[in-house]
Amino acid sequence: GNHEQADLAAVGLSDSVAAAVHEAANVSFGSDLADSDLITLYGLTKHVIAHASYRTQLQTYLASRMHAIAPSLAHLVGDTVGARLIAHAGSLTNLAKCPASTIQILGAEKALFRALKTKHATPKYGLIFSVYYYEILASPDRACQLAKAAFDDAIAELDQLSEDSYKGLHLH
User: Fold this and answer.
1) CA 48 from centre of chain
2) Percent of the chain with pLDDT over 70
3) Which end of the chain is less packed: N or C, by CB atoms within 10 Å?
């Protein structure tokens, strides 16, 4: 079959693993692919590659727009999460006006209203996932890493401010 022509060492498999794959292929119940099947798979492969290329283009575009429009937000939470936060808030201006408690659950509106309606626990996270790592994945170390990185980035941003930019402001 087709497996006899495959050089599995070329894709980084060890000789023992390649031998095991060849042995399993020899006793499998599969059959050779017809030319029409190969044509269909080739077409599907071309679509998958084109989709991956388009996705890369979109990610590059999103990164350039986020770094031009909201560089601090992009730096703190990443391009994709930043764009989603802006989209959920309606605009960057609306996002800037939101209290932290609202930003924390942006993206979990359905769950919030369902919890309020059924008198169950309200969601504690939305698009921002450090809480997700802590509570759901039980990975407090990763959650702490994310929170520390965000804190360090915020402090670095504050350190770059001139005294005149915050003189006269009061913390509440």
Assistant:
1) 19
2) 66
3) C
